Amino acid sequence: xxxxxxxxxxxxDIEDRLYQKWIEKKYFHAExxxxxxxxxxxxxxxxVTGRLHMGHALDETMQDIIIRFKRMQGYSALWLPGTDHASxxxxxxxxxxxxxxxxxxxxxxxxxxxxETWDWTHEYGGAIVxxxxxxxxxxxxxxxxxxxxxxxxxxxxxxxxxxxxxxxxYKGSRIINWCPxxxxxxxxxxxxxxxxxxxxxxxxxxxxxxxxxFVQIATTRPExxxxxxxxxxxxxxxxxxxxxxxxxxxxFVNREIPVIADSYVDKEFGTGVVKITPAHDPNDxxxxxxxxxxxxxxxxxxATINAMGGKFEGMDRxxxxxxxxxxxxxxxxxVKVEDHSHNVGTHDxxxxxxxxxxxxxxxxKMDELIKPAVEAVKSKEIELIPERMEKTxxxxxxxIRDWCISRQLWWGHRIPAYYCDKCSEVVVSKxxxxxxxxxxxxxxxxxxxxxxxxxxxALWPFSTLGWPDNTKELEYFYPTDVLVTGYDIxxxxxxxxIFSGFEHMGEKxxxxxxxxxxxxxxxxxxxxxxxxxxxxxLEIIAEYGADALRLxxxxxxxxxxxxxxxMERVEAxxxxxxxxxxxxxxxxxxxxxxxxxxxxxxxxxxxxxxxxLSKKNALVKExxxxxxxxxxxxxxxxxxxxxxxxxxxxxxEMVKPRLYNDEDTTKMAALWTLKTVLIDSLKLLHPxxxxxxEEIFCTLQDKxxxxxxxEWPVYDEAFxxxxxEEAVELIKAAVKxxxxxxxxxxxxxxxxxxxIVVTEDDAVAQTFNTSxxxxxxxxxxxxxxxxSDKEGISQDxxxxxxxNATVYMPFAxxxxxxxxxxxxxxxxxxxxxxxxxxxxxxxxxxFMSKAPExxxxxxxxxxxxxxxMMAQVEERLQQLS
RNA sequence: GGAGUCAUAGCUCAGCAGGGACGAGCGUUCCCCUCACACGGGAGAGGUCAUGGGUUCGAGCCCCAUUGGCUCUACCA
Length: 881
Description:
- By secondary structure, this protein is an alpha/beta fold.
- The chain contains 26 helices and 29 strands.
- Helix 2 links the parallel strand 1 and strand 2 (about 75-80).
- Helix 14 (about 535-545) packs across helix 15 and helix 24 runs antiparallel to helix 26.
- The chain binds one RNA strand through strand 8, strand 12, helix 6, helix 9 and strand 25.
């Protein structure tokens, strides 16, 4: 195998090839394995006909990171993929497509329409899956599921029948949200409330039997007056006590309706009189039930006025409104029109203003089902990350209403209810009944409606594992471990999966829910088609690589928070991938001639080796802990910092003199350390950046065939070298000081000089003595001399102070004494500030008595350090002046 | 109406468990094309952690109020 890499990392050259290899090797496939612990994630199924957007990219990246991590840790890690049939959205798309051909869905009938939709699904359904692969998603594609496939459909029927038999599903005529464009009912969760500028019309209704007397009502929707069956006042409202029980006349339809008293009416709002339209308003519906009012539906399914509306019949609701207002004005019944801004419910798919209508629909009774779901989150049996999402969760569960699950659509799971053609008996059954159990008639017709899409997704964590059959997968992989999803579907999906899990499996569907936020554009706006500000993940992948995209999406973002996406961040991620690539390239170039041993005797390691190995060891521990808590962004940030700063900028630089010198007896130790640290770093990075790490890993070594099935690094006590760590930190401080001085003095980088370290501390002297070689390189020094006094150092040498030592550089001809004094005075001022702070704390009695001892000791050590440095600085100043 | 959330460097954001303003990326200033990387290296500048109180020996981090932005939720006709 060639040990050469190109100078610049080019993702497009390797990604598809590596993904193909992973598929062929079946690395993504998880099996029931009693020797391993299971770890399971089920994918939030994207719409089958959808296209990958940034939201998916974020969601999938998080899941892939977790599953790759767990796989490397030795779990039987299953990431179960699938797609959702997305009833309304898919049906609407197909309807539009047909419309272009001049076809209405009714023309081709249910069967014809379903055939069209299946064709469409097959044609476009593969795209989203292929796009997920581009991201590097390590889903077990052998187990790909679809909410409308046979297994999921079986689960849906099973659940429907079971809940019906328990009395938890019922059919009832209730007021529901109706979309006049999609011509279907929708659930409360699908209604979006938008602020609309509207009007408040004040209208007079004549009181019957009292010539010239009126009640004045105020309404935002005058057209519904056609369906009024009462007007209501507050029973406490003294203005109106005398008219309670009287009747008033509804204009246009000349219907006599009663004045009723109901505490629902707010005395302070409007005129204090409310028209009651039970068939077109949810509140009025409730009032109507309390007072036994008739429910008069005045609208058709497309929101035009029906025959009940008299001369307005056939007009659209808004057209009728306009007409009616004009006529009321003419009749002198319109008192005034006020501007009034109010919230209007719209359908989240098509933005049409929802029309509340009374329709026979199927409902799931929620009050009992929700209880275990509430309890599980309260008791932390299910953990929500971040925790604050619990508030959103409870906000919904505390106000739970029955779930309207029937949809007047064809694309979806048809409701398994059958009606006897003869006696109208209802039979709910998994199979088409032969005969009516009541009258024995031999023909029953299935309900025309289908189920809400979320009805099937609610079962996803177990239907995908084979339920209702008792499969070995279900036994092994359920409950799943973590659900990764956006906070925007807590109500639609998360809650419904939780109660479904408890109801049907008797157990929670997942242990943890990890929420992420929305991906916004660089200005913080939602990415949307209409704004045209969406960024296509696939284009980013093509240009910068999947690794760069993944890293961008995962860094600098806390769980549940929205994030802004902009190209500079992608470039930064790409640069990091390139950095890793080049560090690896450097190491491999140096490895070419040498055979690196498997293990090494610790005594062969130098100070620097031990330092970086210690650092790496600590990193492994921290990163593992962070990842186990799903702190993915924090974890990768730590690896990023370690690789770029500690490993590349310090260790590799320190080690160069040893590599370039074949005589150096520690060269092998350096190579061994480089390789060891690199491999572990690659492993830590692999979940985040699967492609670049795999490519390097496979070029770097040939013992293992893939990093994705290699073992996750573990913390090793044998590689903790605390004293060596401190020593190297001291050298780093010295080097930084020297560089600083050189830069400030404008010493050209090419100018090498002698560096004299003066210290009375034996340990410090020892450190510098043993590290002269790399120290020299890093500090641009030609030579390093360590001594215990200032003998032989010219008076005009530049100096810099580090703890327990002073570093001198004789740049005689370059140095400007004035400037040097200025520099030292700046340093003195800084130290004075530090001393003031430390002394302030240490002189505070209450601090001394109450603060933990460790903290006090820490501050004391600082005091000593600063005092020491201050003395050195002052001494230098005295010498110079 | 209710709830949540944010306000930290010029910009976008981290900051896990209250203990030196701790940061990152980008931008910016100066010096370097040094044989892994200019998608790079080195050295800087830049912050009263929104405002006002409180708790604490000590607060960006906890509590209360205020201001401003965002989001969710809700039946004010």
